[in-house]
Amino acid sequence: MEEMKGLEVLLDGSVNVKQLAFKANRLNAECMKELSKILRKNETIKEVILSESRIGSLGATLIASALKVNSCLEELHIWEDAVGSKGAEELSKMIEANSTLKLLIIFDSSSITATPLNLFRRWKITNKPLTH
Question: How confident is residue 37, by pLDDT bands cut at 50, 70 and 90?
């Protein structure tokens, strides 16, 4: 939790950090709330990678909520984080609200419910180009 608050301080005002990557972490609900807060207000991060960080469906829901208002993130990768059907559903809804996200990958080999989501779905729904 303290590390996530430190990350927020580090990123505040920084224009150089373009990617955040978390691998094999234990990102509990409080950490995911902090990350969500960071993503809501950050205007420079282009890519977030979460891999084996135990975010679960709550973490995916918090990320989706933040990305509905984020206007700079272009890529989100979630690997082996057990987002479940609820988390995948919330991320799918986020696609419709976020106009800057170009790539969303969700992969979990232990779950039959999580599959890679294609942004082609947004194009079919809105008939808008996927890039600006």
Answer: very high
Q: What pLDDT does 126 receive?
A: 46
At a CB cut-off of 8 Å and minimum separation 6, what does 104 contact?
75, 76, 91, 95, 117, 119
Q: Sign of the C-alpha dihedral, residues 32, 33, 35, 36?
A: positive
Q: Where are the domains of the chain?
A: 19-119
By three-state DSSP, how is residue 103 classified? strand
pTM: 0.80
Within 13 A of 65's CA, how many CA atoms are on the CB side? 15
Fold of 19-119: 3.80.10
> Edge-to-edge strands of the sheet including 19-23?
19-23, 47-51, 75-79, 103-107
Q: Is 129 exposed, middle or buried (0-12, 13-18, 19+ CB in 10 A)?
A: exposed
